[in-house]
Design brief:
The complex is a heterodimer of chains A (94) and B (244). Chain A has 94 residues and is mainly α. Helix content of chain A is 94%, strand content 0%. Chain B is globular, with a radius of gyration of 22 Å. The termini of chain B are far apart. The mean pLDDT of chain B is 87. The chains are: A mainly alpha (94), B mainly alpha (244). The interface between A and B is medium-sized, with 24 and 21 residues.
Chain lengths: 94, 244
């Protein structure tokens, strides 16, 4: 038979452990916002760069709307590639 | 201080106008706060390294911790080959950190909330890393645009996408720092304006928000300096150790 006192102390210890975990998860939420923002900028930057390249090439070759459209989508693809790369790196860090 | 929350970002000249070869090189409030940041860094590191005690005092301890922090970050992300670039990354980190932190003081100007400042730093890093890559590996460096295991049909498309992804690095690096700093400071100003306009009856709620936001902003100021430095390390790692 285990005595009730022993059980009580063990329960207290277990409870305090859970509390600690919840606290650290709350702290993590702030850095989650940071990483979400990080992924967002990666995506947007690549789309922007792709579109600008398309615009420049268009005015070089005089193919007005076509290259900008193509490079917009290529930029979006590059943005997703960036996001996947960043997410992979973040996962490796954890 | 007017009610316009964007007025805090305006750059104005201090002292006489200096023009060299048609380029405006006048001393502005932005330059003033950069000088203040650099002066604070120099003072701190001078005091921290003046007496090399075996048992360090407080300021020496902070300086040593900072050194270890950056040294560990570089060796973790970019390996031992990146050791020669320690001074550059250390200066970069501490400059961005101090600019962000000095900007948190009331009436101070936040240098890093201007895209021209962050983009200049990011472009310098981008060009330097590209030169280092070509210098170390020659034309083999172009292999980073060709991922392994891609079918030959898709290769041209993937290469273009990789090149766009590579070119977007300085943009995302600079936009992240600039947007975080500008958004945070604008938000602080807006909530500060609410405190005034709601008066003594309703002003307490935005005031408590401002206090919480100030804490968050200090966290963001540190985090963004860290992210800026660690991404530089990662880009350096790509240039030093070719994976593909």
């Amino acid at each position: 038979m285990t005595n009730p006192e022993d059980f009580k102390t063990r329960l207290e210890i277990a409870k305090s452990k859970i509390k600690k975990q919840v606290l650290s998860e709350n702290e993590k939420r702030g850095s989650f916002m940071g990483s979400a923002f990080k992924l967002g900028t990666e995506l947007v930057a690549a789309v922007g760069v792709g579109t600008i390249i398309g615009f420049i090439l268009d005015s070089w070759f005089g193919t007005k709307p076509w290259l900008i459209i193509i490079f917009f989508f290529l930029g979006a693809a590059a943005g997703m590639l960036n996001v996947v790369k960043t997410a992979n790196r973040m996962q490796k860090e954890d | 201080m007017a009610s316009n929350p964007m007025q805090q970002f305006s750059v104005h000249k201090i002292g006489p106008e200096i023009k060299i070869a048609g380029i405006d090189l006048s001393f502005t409030n932005a330059s003033l706060f950069m000088v203040i940041s650099v002066a604070l860094i120099s003072l701190f590191l001078f005091l921290g390294t003046k007496e090399k005690k075996i048992i360090p005092d407080k300021i020496q301890l902070i300086a040593e911790m900072l050194y270890n922090f950056i040294a560990k970050m570089i060796s973790d992300t970019a390996g031992s080959k990146a050791k020669p670039y320690f001074p550059f990354i250390f200066s970069l980190f501490i400059f961005v950190l101090l600019c962000n932190m000095v900007g948190m003081l009331p009436y101070a100007f936040t240098v890093t909330s201007h895209i021209i400042v962050t983009l200049t730093m990011a472009l310098f890093i981008f060009i330097a890393v590209t030169i280092i890559g070509f210098f170390k590996h020659g034309f083999k460096y172009l292999n980073i645009f060709i991922p392994s295991g891609v079918p030959a049909v898709l290769l041209p498309l993937i290469t273009i996408i990789e090149i766009i992804s590579y070119l977007s690095r300085p943009v995302s690096l600079s936009v992240r720092l600039f947007a975080n700093m500008m958004a945070g400071h604008t938000m602080l100003k807006v909530f500060g304006g609410f405190v005034i306009s709601l008066g003594i009856l309703g002003g307490w709620l935005p005031l408590s928000f401002s206090v919480a936001l100030t804490g968050l902003e200090i966290l963001v100021a540190f985090l963004q300096a860290y992210v800026f430095a660690i991404l530089t390390c990662i880009y350096l790692n790509d240039a030093l150790n070719l994976h593909h």
